[in-house]
Amino acid sequence: MTVTESQIRDYGFDEMANAGFYIAFRIEFLLPEFEYNDLPRPWVHKYTQQGLLMMDPVLRWVYCNVGSIRWSEIDISDTAGVLREAARYDLNFGAAISIRDEQDASIRSFGNFCRSDREFEPSEIKELERRLELLFSDLTAPDDVTEAETEVLAAIRDGELIKEIAFKLSISEGAVKQRLRSAKDKLGARTTPHAVSLAVGYGLL
């Protein structure tokens, strides 16, 4: 799903992770369907240029575990000094949260949250986990939107009027409106344009 920066901000991760955060959704073959990187740009550049991904003890923990942990509690050797280097960019303390996909255990999502000033409290990690699960739930397309409903949403996206859609599909205008209402309910949309936007973001159209 396409998510804007302002939408991510609505979850308040930056309020809890004052040094930055990184989120990856549904990783398969090392590639996430969606990712959001709020870590310091100079650190991201260094991390990428020096190929620290495969040596990062936090990511090694994330890919082998489910749950949450402080960086300081990870019992994996950091031979490349990744966390020491991260501290040079005020990434002094962190918490990692790894969530396995309910339908496919080989797919996981995770969040990596950083602070410059202190360790995360257990209650804060639980709250980050709650917000992360909420975000991932919002990113997951509903599986009960029917082909008939997406057909109507696609027509609305293309600028067709209710009566034009009814004529094209050989159904009543009332049936078109009912399909729209049903699609909005399933997508959690407030309006028809919102439903179309969500359907596009989920890749349903």
From TrEMBL:
Residues 138-203 form the HTH luxR-type domain. It comes from the Bacteria. It comes from Jannaschia seohaensis. Keywords: DNA-binding, Transcription, Transcription regulation. The lineage of its organism: Bacteria, Pseudomonadati, Pseudomonadota, Alphaproteobacteria, Rhodobacterales. The keyword Methyltransferase does not apply. GO terms for molecular function: DNA binding. GO terms for biological process: regulation of DNA-templated transcription. Pfam families: Autoind_bind, GerE. This is LuxR family transcriptional regulator.
